[in-house]
Amino acid sequence: MGFKREAAASKYVSAIILFGITIWIYSAFSITTTPDFFIFSTLLLFLFITENFPIPIWKGLSALSFPLFYTIELLYGLGITIIVLGGMVCLVHALNKRPFRIVLFNPAQLMLSFFGAVHIADFLLFSVKTWLSPFGYAEIRMILVAGLFYILNNLIVDTLLIIRPQSYPLKMWKTKTISESLVTLLSIAYMTLMFLLGSQNRGVVDVFSYIFFFSPLVALALISSFIARLNQERNRLKALYKISTTLNAHLPSKDWLQEAELPFLEFLGTDAVLLFLYDGNSWKQAYQNGMLSSDEGIYSEFFDQLESKPSMHVCNKKNENNKWGFTFFPESIKSVMIAPLKTEEEILGVLLTGRTRTHAFSAVDTQSMSTLANQLTVAWKTKLLISEREKRILLEERNRIAREIHDGIAQTLAGSVMQLESAQRVFTKKPERTKQLVAVSTEKLRGSLKELRESIYALRPYLTERIGLHQAIKAKIQSVEEEGHTIQIHFQVRGTPCRLSQMVEKVIFDIFQESLQNVLKHAKAAKVTIILSYSSDQVTFRIKDDGVGFSLYESMIKARQEPHYGILNMNEQSDTLGASLHIDSAKGKGTEIKLQIPHLETKEANIP
Fold first, then answer.
1. Among 149, 273, 417, 486, whose Cα sits 20 to 30 Å from the Cα of 127?
2. DSSP alpha helices (H): ranges in 288-328?
């Protein structure tokens, strides 16, 4: 069904182009006057400027040029006007490198609309022309031509939008109609002013009169166009900034792209966007704002082509050579741009975007696509590095536990076995010695059993993974209180909590546990304050006590002598995150430990 409607739309466009060319040729043979060179050149220049710098309306642009070509029609007739209008619009579209069909269709629709509006208006006013004053007739004719021109023009465009398979809802039609009506009213007001000034008989109307009168119109078109372009660039920069900050903020999250609201379409100005990422083993769809093909069997062909052509591609109008680029899009997408995500000749992913028009991508679009692809490449490479680092840290932790089991529990068990064997040999001769050996072995076995249980517990999912960072801290505080400690512990969260990676939460909780344990053992404190603060650029963890404090210099000397001392362990863990750890303490003045972790927040987390 969609293919049939697309074919009908194509035939409709061809018909409008054919009628437009016919009218243009007919008008060329109907020219009877020779225009004044200076006035005509001035009007042509102004017409070129207003067509080349249209004012923003609805979801597009509209040229404020009706007063200019209507003035040409009044001065030199309809034939010259049609020639000028068609030629000028065609030239502007060609200079802006629009698709060939657009270069022909847009001037054709404008010529048809103006040609029809003038003839219909003259036919309707023919019988009443003698009843009206010159000013009244000129004003009514201008209003009638302007109204009919915009009605016919919009009727041609609306018909095309209805025929095409893409949706054209009533709300969109209302918005477009209101915007076009405002442009029509502005044109009518400007022409009315011209008739009023012309009726005052202020002298000879020369080229300077036209320059003076139409300069504000041209200035309005230029200023509106520049403002629209500045706003467009500002919105694109805002969208790019949001994409960058959102990607960075969600890097620690497992489903980082699914959770993020990324304005890809707003930045690229396209109709569909797809992103595939390669993790070293397989391709996975990471983001979608558009339709996907349901035939997964053809996916491999696309990625094979991508590996053989690892550079940016623009595919215009599907054919045998470029059909692989349209693999994931429906028939309504006519232009596709493909940007591989590359680093050091390694393909990490591919970004695809499409539009419903053929030859729809300009050099600016290519630059925007390249910029976005670079951002995604950096983000995905960083994500892979973070994942590798977390796997390495996890492996190191498991190796540490294995070494502890081997050097601790295994050695203890071996010693206990030897002692029990000795006890067995001296059992009948030295019963007291046997009891002593059994008692020592039993004590060592109990200690080994405790260590074994702790090692097994350490291999289970970490507490923060099971219940979250906030609840883990609260659970630890409750455990301390239940053990009978009289110390007052206050925990508070500031700012808006955000999602953190499992590794970040683990490090924060480990440093919290180590710090709290030191307070309970050594600080002799009456009060401990724990603050977890979230801001737009970092997460800060603080734990402060009012205890006896300590000399940091002496502690560092002790740390070198005792490798498992807590301060070194906390420093090592903070370094794995690229975080900064500050310890502020002095004898008799308590201790404050502050951990600052770089972070960019864009999305709130529902954390109890």
1. 149
2. 299-308
- Res 364 pLDDT > 70: yes
- Give the strand pairing for 527-534 and 60-62: unpaired
* Model pLDDT, residue 30: 87
The two domains 2-214 and 256-382 share their CATH topology (first three levels equal): no
Could you list the beta-strand ranges (E) of 323-369.
Answer: 335-343, 346-355
For 578-587, which contacts have Cβ atoms below 8 Å and span 24 or more sequence positions?
A: 579/507, 581/511, 583/552, 585/549, 585/550, 585/551, 585/552, 586/549, 586/550, 586/551, 587/548, 587/549, 587/550, 587/551
Fold of 256-382: Beta-Lactamase (3.30.450)
Are residues 154 and 177 in contact, defined by beta-carbon separation less than 8 angstroms?
Answer: yes
Residue 31's contacts (CB-CB under 8 Å, 6 or more residues apart) are 77, 79, 80, 83
Alpha helices in 29-133 (DSSP H): 37-52, 66-76, 78-95, 100-125
- Give the whole-angstrom CA distance, residue 224 versus residue 215: 14
Separation CA 478–CA 379 (nearest Å): 40
Q: Can you name the CATH fold of 467-608?
A: Heat Shock Protein 90 (3.30.565)
Residue written as tokens 């955000």?
498
- Host H or E run for residue 345: none
Residue with tokens 């670079």: 374
Neighbours of 173 (CB within 10 A): 14
Q: Where are the domains of the chain?
A: 2-214, 256-382, 467-608
Q: pLDDT digits over 184-238, tens only?
A: 898 889 888 888 877 665 555 567 788 888 888 889 888 888 887 788 788 888 8
Answer with the residue of higher pLDDT: 142 or 133.
Answer: 142
How would you class 202 by CB atoms within 10 Å of its CB: exposed for 0-12, middle for 13-18, buried for 19 or more?
A: exposed
CA distances 129 to 122, 145, 206, 548, Å, are 9, 15, 28, 105
Q: Return the minimum-mean-pLDDT range out of 237-241, 399-403, 589-593.
A: 399-403
Does 190 or 387 have the greater pLDDT score? Answer: 190
Answer yes or no: are the C-beta atoms of 477 and 492 closer than 8 Å. Answer: no
pLDDT in tens, 244-292: 777 776 666 666 666 566 788 878 888 888 888 888 788 888 888 765 5
- Measured at the CA of 4, the angle between CA 161 and CA 158, to 5 degrees, comes to 10
pTM: predicted TM-score of the whole model, two decimal places? 0.57
Give the closest residue to 20 by CA, choosing from 89, 110, 119, 99. 110
Euclidean distance between CA atoms 420 and 18, whole angstroms: 106
pLDDT digits (tens, 9 = 90+) for 441-454: 777 777 776 666 66
CA 544 – CA 178 distance, rounded (Å): 64
Euclidean distance between the first and the last CA atom of the chain, given in angstroms as a whole number? 52
The answer as to CATH 1.10.1760 being correct for domain 2-214 is: yes
Max mean pLDDT range (54-63, 100-109, 203-212): 100-109
Q: Which of 246, 248, 252, 250 is nearest to 504 (CA)?
A: 252
pLDDT of residue 542 exceeding 90, the answer is yes
Distance, CA of 219 to CA of 211 (rounded, Å): 11
pLDDT band of residue 600 (cuts 50, 70, 90) is very low
Query: Which strand (E) or helix (H) includes residue 281?
Result: none
